[in-house]
């Protein structure tokens, strides 16, 4: 086994005084080489900075968020390290892995697969919530306790929500852009969960935010969700944010602040418009 915390620097670009870096490392969870992006704000103090993990959507790599969202301005302003991993293992030579854009490579759905064909490599849930935390602790902090929050877009917005709801002790806050809110009830989710988790739908609820809010036992939380009203994936019932709002009505400990943003679509033009609000939201929790 190689040490996943040993990083190779792939690229480094100065951006808003800090550095936008991309690293490569050998993942034990995914059994392949993975890339992830790390924005490191300029930090003249000795203080360990808090961390925000971004999870991207279907078809993305570690590049989409860092090249399209313009988040670096806010990461430097609030002095928050931002980590953006790839969305699946790559190059595992699994038959059919690259045939579809919404399953396999680029579409790990942030679950730990149980179906034998995928179970060895497709473990994005454990990669994000365990291995990546170890990598961050060893490389980007002074050994201090981690202060980490999590957010994401679409498949990654849902990945952020389930990561938080299953690990309230690991994260300070959570937010999402256009999340696939109820995957067990939409075509993308049904297809991916059948492939990764098998056809027994009872096994799917462990990775569905609408089911998880009902079992949530952490401290009271508010999830910030931004959703564009002109989002084609909203119109084709892949996202279903109202199901999440409804699921939260039955619990007192999870509240969703769903902001329907008039005229915006599913793209990074939407994300870049509201990314500053999400940094302001997370900074409140990370700095306390
Ligand atoms: N190829 C697809 C569209 C794929 C797409 O829109 N992906 C979104 C995330 S969708 C949910 O997870 C995305 O973030 N794309 C990357 C980008 O840079 O925009 C199609 O043709 O419909």
TrEMBL record:
Repeat listed as a keyword: no
Class in the EC hierarchy, top level: hydrolase
Keyword field contains Translocase: no
Active site: 154 (charge relay system), 231 (charge relay system), 266 (charge relay system)
One GO CC annotation: cytosol
Swiss-Prot/TrEMBL keywords: Cytoplasm, Hydrolase, Serine esterase
Pfam families, sorted: Esterase
Record's subcellular location: Cytoplasm
EC number: 3.1.2.12
Family designation: Belongs to the esterase D family.
Task performed by this protein: Serine hydrolase involved in the detoxification of formaldehyde.
Protein name: S-formylglutathione hydrolase
């Amino acid at each position: 086994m190689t040490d996943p915390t040993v990083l190779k620097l792939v690229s480094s670009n100065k951006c808003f005084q800090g550095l936008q870096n991309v690293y490569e490392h050998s993942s034990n969870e995914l059994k392949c080489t993975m890339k992830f992006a790390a924005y490191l704000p300029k930090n003249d103090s000795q203080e360990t900075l808090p961390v925000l993990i971004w999870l991207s959507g279907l078809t993305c790599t570690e590049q989409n968020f860092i090249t399209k969202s313009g988040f670096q301005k806010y990461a430097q302003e609030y002095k928050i390290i931002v980590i953006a991993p790839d969305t699946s293992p790559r190059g595992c030579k699994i038959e059919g892995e690259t045939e579809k854009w919404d399953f396999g490579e680029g579409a790990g759905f942030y679950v730990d697969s149980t179906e034998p064909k995928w179970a060895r490599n497709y473990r994005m849930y454990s990669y994000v919530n365990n291995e990546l935390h170890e990598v961050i602790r060893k490389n980007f902090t002074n050994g201090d306790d981690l202060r980490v929050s999590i957010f994401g877009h679409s498949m990654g917005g849902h990945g952020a929500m389930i990561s938080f709801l299953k690990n309230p002790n690991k994260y300070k806050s959570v937010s999402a852009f256009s999340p696939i809110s109820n995957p067990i009830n939409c075509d993308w989710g049904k297809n991916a969960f059948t492939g990764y988790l098998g056809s027994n739908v009872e096994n799917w609820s462990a990775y569905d935010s609408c089911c998880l809010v009902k079992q949530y036992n952490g401290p009271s939380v508010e999830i910030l969700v931004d959703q564009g009203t002109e989002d084609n994936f909203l119109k084709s019932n892949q996202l279903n944010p109202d199901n999440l709002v409804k699921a939260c009505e039955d619990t007192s400990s999870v509240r969703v602040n769903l902001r329907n943003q008039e005229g915006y679509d599913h793209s990074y033009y939407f994300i870049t418009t509201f990314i500053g609000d999400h940094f302001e939201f997370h900074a409140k929790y990370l700095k306390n």
